Amino acid sequence: MKSKTKFSHDSLLDRQSTKELLESLARAIKKGQLEFQENEGDLVLSPGNLLQVSVRASDEGDKQQVEIRVKWRTKEKEVSDTPPRIK
């Protein structure tokens, strides 16, 4: 299979299946390798030790949601060692 750079999947799951999916993600993060597979190819991600995590929740009457976002850099971000010039 060819390698992919993006993966997307939407499904309607019961609570038990959702729990199992989240546990699979947690195990993959702990292992340091997330493998997403589908017919068109695989996407393999390798998180480092430091991950940026955002959690948001909302209740809008008939619609409730929790959003979890996890991201990381594969290369260290270059940061200048000199202050900016301000006039």
Helix-strand layout with pairing:
Layout: H1 15-31, E1 34-38, E2 41-45, E3 52-59, E4 64-71
Antiparallel strand pairs: 1-2, 3-4
Summarize the structure.
This protein has 87 residues and is an alpha+beta fold. Helices cover 20% and strands 30% of the residues.
What does it look like?
This protein is of the alpha+beta class and 87 residues long. It contains one helix and four strands, in the order H-E-E-E-E. Strands 1-2 form a two-stranded antiparallel ribbon. It has a two-stranded antiparallel sheet with strand order 3-4. It starts with 14 loop residues before the first helix and ends in a 16-residue tail after the last strand. The model has no long low-confidence stretch (mean pLDDT 91).
The Cα radius of gyration reads: 18 Å
Helix and strand run: HEEEE
Structural class: alpha+beta
N-end to C-end Cα span: 55 Å
Shape: extended
Tally of helical segments: 1
- Major sheet attributes: 2 strands, antiparallel
User: Biggest sheet: strands side by side, in what order?
Assistant: 1-2
Low-confidence parts lasting 5 or more residues at pLDDT below 50? none
DSSP helix fraction? 10-25%
Beta-strand content estimate: 25-35%
* Oligomeric composition of the shown chains: single chain
E-strand count: 4
Average pLDDT taken over every residue: 91
